[in-house]
Amino acid sequence: MAIAVASAAPGRHRVVGRLAHDPVAAAGAAFLVLVALVAVFAPVVAPHDPYAIVDRPLRPPNDASWLGTDDVGRDLLSRLIHASRVTLAVGVGAALLTASIGTLVGALAGFYGGRTDTLLSGWINVMLSIPTLPLALVLSAFVEVTLLGYGIQPPVASWGNMLQNAQRYLRTAPALAVYPGLLISLTVVSINFVGDALRDALDPARKGAPDW
Question: Fewer Cβ atoms within 10 A, N terminus or C terminus of the chain?
Fold first, then answer.
């Protein structure tokens, strides 16, 4: 156990150091943490029930509804806050999937050794050598499709189905599309920047690089 903790410490140090020296990645990490906190405490921080009709439809921002109301008359801010839970679920699911794949690959390589270990190690090296931009584009496409709310049906709020529903009101109420679209974009960009920082910090090829 002590050996495992000791071996993990340099990796944590490199990650923290990388974030400390990369303000863009740090900002992305802060945004993702904020989304997670808002999602966890959504019932507390949301000013209204996300399903309740609080005013007339498409009401502009006012004292009671800071971002206005949607096409039904529900508080837009409250629905955006509760929709962040979908984002949190996607993030946790992706992290668990990645950890599961990594554990399986490592277990197979360690158990069989020899040619299997060589092949799996080669595959990992290939994945690590993929240029940042194409990998970011693939990740962005995956996350965007997920966040766009396919399979999540109203009245349950997700940033994706809110954005889809807002297409009908782009001229009369563009804010309905701007807010969820902006949150989706910020989330995707934040994931990309944090992912790049983690890769740079943990990439075996960078072990000779400055340890921040």
Answer: N
State both tokens at 100.
């599961």
Residue found by looking up tokens 């992912």 in the block: 195
How does pLDDT run across 161-183, given as a tens digit for each residue? 888 889 899 999 999 999 999 99
Q: Percentage of residues in the chain with pLDDT exceeding 70?
A: 66
What region, left, alpha or beta, does residue 92 occupy, with left being phi > 0 and alpha being psi -120 to 50 degrees?
alpha
pTM of the predicted protein model: 0.71
The string of DSSP codes covering 16-79 is HHHHHT-HHHHHHHHHHHHHHHHHHTHHHH-SS-TTSB-SSTTPPP-SSSTT-B-SSSBBHHHH
- Provide the Cα torsion 55, 56, 58, 61; round to 10°: -40
